[in-house]
Amino acid sequence: MPNTPDWVKALQPSGPQGTELLAQERAKSNLNVDQLASFMFTNEALERSERILNILKKEPVFDKTQNYFRGRNARIEAALARGKRLFQLTKEHNWSQQDYIVANDLIAEPTPYGLHASMFLVTLREQGTPEQHELFLKPAENYEILGCYAQTELGHGSNVRGLETTATWDPTDKSFVLHSPHLTASKWWIGSLGKTATHAVVMAQLILNGKMIGPHPFVVPIRDKKTHEPLPNVHVGDIGPKFGYNTMDNGFLLLNNVKIPHNHMLARFSSIDPNTSKYSRPANPSLIYGTLTWVRSNIVLQSGSVLAKGVTIATRYCAVRRQFQDRDAPAGEPGENQVLNYTMVQVRLLPLLAATFALHFTGRGMINLYDENQKRMKGDVGKLSDGTRNPGPEELNPGTDLLADLHATSCALKAYGSTVAGEGLEICRRACGGHGYSSFSGIGSWYADYLPTLTWEGDNYMLTQQVSRYLLKSARSVLKGKAGNNDTTRILTEFLRRRDIGAAFDVLGSDEDLVAAFAWRVSFLTFEALRHRDEDKQSWNSLLVDFWRLSTAHAQYMVVKNFHQALNDKATTEKLDKDTVGLLHKLFRLYALNTLEQEASEFYSSAAVTVRQITLARTKAVMTLLEEIRPHAVRLVDAWKFDDWVLDSSLGRYDGKVYEDMFKRASEDNPLNSVVFDPYPNMQISTILLLPGLAMAAHGSPRKLQYSGGCIFPADHSYPKDCTVSHIESQLKKQCTSLGGATLRNTNYDTTLTQIDYQCECVHGNTKSFEFNDGIFTATATVGDIC
């Protein structure tokens, strides 16, 4: 587009400047940002992130200037190029797996390799045998094969046991026959499947001797490794544009009696003897869903991080943005008030700020619990196996087995954490006012790309049933005196002990009592649901709303408990100064009391708190905490250490240059400003957009366009040295694209390049012919309407 005039470049926002305002904000607080960041992430992790970020910033392929302007095909192409370069950088710099994961996070958009690097490799690693690691995992780690995890189907998502894809054991040739018997058996939404993957871990119903055993994982080749074309009897492709996540090639897959060898069934936990056709079952049926448990555990950690990005953007912007004068300001005081000073903004943003820390510490606890469970699970399998079969679920003690507790906790926290993050991002966007709707705010892309998390790996509402089922089972065990020793049974037992004498929690004065009140509420709702189910004989369906509330209460208790434990772990908090620890405790209380106030009816009906306490929490405690945390808000978001390059946001810039950056993106980076519109109704529809440098002839004349910019065609027909056939052809391609997405075809040049004939062809076959003669574009023939 034309260069920005100097007089425009000289303009500045009206004062005070954003840089000054954010500097003043940071000066208000004594919070040690680096110390807090080290406490949250460790110095090693921060150094790794900075090292990798410096490498990525220097790579042209990762330039983000055009991210918000590209269409889907261009975004997919750019994402694939970035994914390839990321793999090359991994080799060049000898990056570890963790380095690669960090680099992916810093790029901050999905690449077509995303599901290969996460779920495909994790599934092979967790559920494959040593022999299968040699066969599949090693080539996958070297990107010699590219994979995905194909579980969800067109007709089934959350109900894994209802999957329709079948894998029938054929003892005659020791193979499995993978088949999609119905249209609804089509694998759907599978990341990296659409155009990228050569292999898929397909979750299919194992059929043995005519009997359906249940879903099991099978490694299925789907594309030829040389041509990358689909293999015979495999129908695979991309599912099309989505609300967000459009740099990922989510795909569909249908299989027509595709045979795979015996060793393509991942057999660490269950297998079929190829000689006897005898089936060995898993130690626990849930073991084959271990990949999903791992994913859900990470979703909890990621929910805090993605919400923190939105809160960072909104907090910085609301500290820079000024609207209206304070009605109670001293007479004559000039200037408008910072938006962040308004309590209606604080009550929306600051509890979300507190939630980012709460979810972070909870996610960290979940990952530790997952790792502990993996060690325990391996020990149980080895201890109980008799050499001929693995132990069944009845041989494992469900009261003490960490798997049941981890599964229920991961379901509850996945549902709750992703809901808080998804809804919180929208709150952040709206807090940014009109500019929050601009792509340049950055929040929209984070929101759109994060939203699938609320439904994938278990729909958030469906998952709450699994949580409630576990809690009701635990309550029955407690009532029978057969409960194991874990946190769930402990709080249920304590509730029964004190139920008749009542609770007296000092939620306004004691952090420990605040945690206990959340535990009391969960226990009350659990036994209420159990009474409705077992005594009143209410149907499962009639209790689903109660189960959703119960699961939410359980998740909120776990978040409050984990946040509190993290702040009272002397081994880690001793690294923080007293003021920082005190501020974190205020964030804990803000999250807990704000949640209590929002869920007031359940706390009151359980007798955990009184009406007076609820009233004081809302009118006094929460408002006081907002006032105390407000001066530290900008430094608190700084502690997340999000680089501007990662946020890619005009509104969330660290230096506060909000308006300068927003105008530059709109004026200078926007490719739409490089074309001229043909708005006149009497002109051809095909000439709506003109190329850069083209000037339209007099209004109403036939389409005749003079090229006036770049390297092309002075009046004497001389050519600048850098004017090449390739350069001209790129301009012609752009013109065809502008005419409805057509493709350049049949280009013929004369020896002096003064005469060029070419055609623009649409997908449906219609073409339009053009001449380029002495610097003039002219439409000379038309076959149908162009696109």
Description:
- There is one protein chain.
- The protein folds into five domains: 1-15 and 657-673, no CATH class; 16-115, Butyryl-Coa Dehydrogenase, subunit A, domain 1 (Orthogonal Bundle), CATH 1.10.540; 146-280, Butyryl-CoA Dehydrogenase, subunit A, domain 2 (Beta Barrel); 294-646, Butyryl-CoA Dehydrogenase, subunit A, domain 3, CATH 1.20.140; 675-783, no CATH class.
- Residues 384-400, 686-723 and 774-785 have low confidence and may be disordered.
- It has 787 residues and is of the alpha+beta class.
- The longest helix has 42 residues, at 343-384.
- Helices cover 48% and strands 12% of the residues.
- The protein is built from 24 helices and 19 strands.
- β16 (743-749) and β17 (755-761) form a beta hairpin.
Please sum up the structure shown.
One of its GO terms (biological process) is fatty acid beta-oxidation using acyl-CoA oxidase. By secondary structure, this protein is α+β, with helices and mostly antiparallel strands.
